Amino acid sequence: MKHHIIIIMIIFIFIVGVTMEAQEIEKPVKGLKVTILVYSGRPNPTYTTTDENFIKKIDSALKSKPKNKNFKDKTVSPSVLGYNGILVENFSDSMPDLEYFLVFRSNVELKNKKPTEKGVPIEILEDSASELQDMLVREAKARGIIDQKVVDLIYKK
Length: 157
Fold this sequence. Notes:
The chain has 157 residues and is α+β, with helices and mostly antiparallel strands. Helices cover 37% and strands 22% of the residues. The chain has one domain. The chain has a 6-stranded antiparallel sheet with strand order 2-1-3-4-5-6, covered by helices on one side.
């Protein structure tokens, strides 16, 4: 009987240890995880930036964009084959209120961790010059995450 209890305890300790190790592995790197939503059926190009200067530029650009009061769709990302936008997930301490933002050309869908004063956690911003998309595409190309073919697809109208 004692042997069974010891074996069960060893198995339990092993399972708890493996679970805790898996949770540590799954923790994202502090920074911004950027995913170029361009492929269907295969992994999208992704990179994580921890560069505080780049993160501050992104934060500043987001804060400078006005709300897009004319936007009527549910999301900025179109339901089409090909380019669907750039998803930026926030794991940085630099922007504590931001959960993610999704950029598609001149529209930015911003999801805060807490609802706004109107109780809505998602806002649509207007980026008429596509500044955010351009910054993220340039960074992805510079890192070798995407090639010129993907860049051309992103800017194809």
